[in-house]
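Figure caption, in words: inputs first, then the predicted bound structure.
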Amino acid sequence: MGVNLIVGTQWGDEGKAKLIDYLSGDTDIIVRYQGGANAGHTVEVNGKKYVFHLIPSGVLYPETICVLGGGMVIDPEALFEEIENLESQGISARDRIRIADNAHLLLPYHKLIDIKREEIPNGQVIGTTRRGIGVCYGDKVNRWGIRMGDLLCEDFYRERLPKILSFKSRVLVNVYGEEPIDAAETEKYLRSLAEKLKGFLVNSSYYLNMEIASGKNVLLEGAQGTMLDLDFGTYPYVTSSNPTTGGALTGSGVSFQSLQEVIGITKAYVTRVGEGPFPTEIHGEEAEHLRKVGNEYGSTTGRPRRVGWFDVEVVRHSARINGLTSIALTKLDVLGGYDTIRVAVGYEQEGKRISYFPTYNIGKVTPIYEDFPGWKEDISGVKSFNDLPKNARRFVLSLEKFIGVPVRWISVGPGRDSTIKLK
Ligand code: GDP
Ligand code: IMO
Ligand code: MG
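Bound structure (6-O-phosphoryl inosine monophosphate present):
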């Protein structure tokens, strides 16, 4: 098996966690490589629902090692809450969690600034999850960040920390009108965190590459999706990391030579949370219906997700960037009951046909639709491709042809068992 990678191909919430849980039964190590508690990954097992924000979605298998990779921004409060929450349900994760020592620490001031920034009058509203993500990655890029390993260094407390806190205080006071940071309290807090976290820390690229060399199966778990990628998404309405294949390598330290399958998780329609362009978005009652049937409400924030028809150009963009070797098509059951299902098979931009997802003037894109006949049957219990209604099979095969990547799994319900394996 080696190393397989799971990425979201749209704007997140494609059902990545459901597939990760389904596929990670014989995985030894599962690695989250980017993002933070902005992710909301839902797994349903035996009718019980679990939502993970920081811990990899394979944690329900009792032997699986869960790594929080160096590309992540980790809010320790959220992490311990998640660990304790699992423990209260009888699932022990503590001994199986490893944290990359180069991952960044996300602190209360990151969250505060994220919230304040979204509320600036006439400011740029992204519709973030308000989990401090962009602010923490900003500090990382600006080299004002605090890495997990720093917590164990006396030099850090003596030299860098006072400068970081004094700079952050100036920003809080002068830009946002907030109170300055209490430096002594923060140092005390970070020292207590060091005690709590040190047992979890590993040099993840060393650890993972050694484990891979010894024959372990590793699954890299992407959060968000390709269209939220900082470089290839709908900038500036993106997250501040790279959920795509490049980010999986830099965020885990795993060599590209170990990579085998890149599986793109793709919803049978499209959703997006927050602001930003969305060419195939639908509105009004039609949207309300799809949102309700698909239960499209954010797993992290509870916000209603925007919904729209399947967009081939988005998934082709994703196939190119990520080097997808296969696709898992999710939530096909949600499309049951429609007379016609629409699919955007291409775009026109200002009167010209374009065959790629544009980088600018995305709002000026007009999707070209093809209509497919729907099916009335409930397919949530279907176990094999041939047992799907003819129109459902035709829909899947057409998407596969448009995208040019084989569909190897079809998900027809939130549970582990509601999965059809093809080929
Ligand atoms: P992720 O962020 O990509 O892991 O996806 P989320 O967990 O945020 O959202 C996907 C939602 O759809 C969750 O509530 C899942 O339980 C649910 N889900 C996943 N796959 C299917 C499916 O095939 N059919 C249905 N009806 N629900 C699904
Ligand atoms: P999973 O892993 C869907 C969106 C936010 C906002 C933008 C920036 O569950 O698929 P951020 O807080 O990251 O700075 O917000 O990105 N966003 C997501 N949308 N699924 C997610 O994660 C998301 N994580 C962030 O709504 O538009
Ligand atoms: Mg989600």
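The two ends are 17 Å apart (CA to CA).
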